[in-house]
């Protein structure tokens, strides 16, 4: 589409039973996966129209515009729904760190050591 | 940890009310986000110990080892839990394409045009 039609986007989204959509947050240039948050329709609308990422906090039950408290804002650079409309990918420019632990990515905190596979 | 202790990992995971965990699948070298799938404890155990990604299919209510039907296997290269243990990131080597539509990534199918933000 040539311009963002937010109602058309919301019509394509398949929110879960709680009315939420998982959003994968990726640094636009390095392609690091920084975190996964959750959005309801209003958080998604704000994220796609305001240039800043807003989540719905499931623990606090409130909107959470990333960076308003911490300063660690996420500036939107791109976004896509997946093929069945039940997951969002948002490419952003992260100010500071994404994780409340102080780590750059929430996935830097608990690396696992899986058995590695290879093409036969 | 120096070796994978699957029970210790499962103890740290916070599965949702349905017993599931979202898993972000990322191509290990290009860092493309290819898809998001869901795992229960058994799918997670298989993924971390078999070198191939296995999901729990919510629609079919069965285990789904990616590639067994399509040939488009996902070979595990790394994995991490996030800071609060409710999301998994899996770095993989994708054979062929990840998406059932034939697209490389499930997020190639429906790109949006959000309002872009920038650091002030």
From TrEMBL, chains A, B:
Originating species: Microcella humidisoli
Quaternary context: Homodimer.
Family per similarity comment: Belongs to the PRA-CH family.
InterPro entries hit by this protein: PRA-CH (IPR026660), PRib_AMP_CycHydrolase_dom (IPR002496), PRib_AMP_CycHydrolase_sf (IPR038019)
Pathway connected to this protein: Amino-acid biosynthesis; L-histidine biosynthesis; L-histidine from 5-phospho-alpha-D-ribose 1-diphosphate: step 3/9
Designated name of the protein: Phosphoribosyl-AMP cyclohydrolase
Catalytic activity: 1-(5-phospho-beta-D-ribosyl)-5'-AMP + H2O = 1-(5-phospho-beta-D-ribosyl)-5-[(5-phospho-beta-D-ribosylamino)methylideneamino]imidazole-4-carboxamide
Domain Phosphoribosyl-AMP cyclohydrolase positions: 35-107
Primary role: Catalyzes the hydrolysis of the adenine ring of phosphoribosyl-AMP.
Keywords in alphabetical order: Amino-acid biosynthesis, Cytoplasm, Histidine biosynthesis, Hydrolase, Magnesium, Metal-binding, Zinc
Required cofactor names: Zn(2+); Mg(2+)
Note on how the cofactor is bound: Binds 1 zinc ion per subunit.
Lineage: Bacteria, Bacillati, Actinomycetota, Actinomycetes, Micrococcales
EC number: 3.5.4.19
């Amino acid at each position: 589409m040539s311009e963002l039609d937010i109602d058309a986007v919301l019509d394509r989204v398949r929110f879960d039973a709680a009315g939420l959509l998982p959003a994968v947050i990726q640094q636009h240039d390095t392609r690091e996966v920084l975190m996964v948050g959750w959005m309801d329709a209003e958080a998604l609308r704000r994220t796609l129209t305001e240039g800043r990422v807003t989540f719905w906090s499931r623990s606090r039950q409130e909107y959470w515009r990333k960076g308003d408290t911490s300063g660690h804002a996420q500036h939107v650079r791109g976004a896509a729904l997946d093929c069945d409309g039940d997951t969002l990918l948002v490419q952003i420019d992260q100010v500071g760190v994404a994780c409340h632990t102080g780590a750059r990515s929430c996935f830097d905190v608990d690396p696992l050591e899986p058995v590695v596979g290879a093409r036969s």
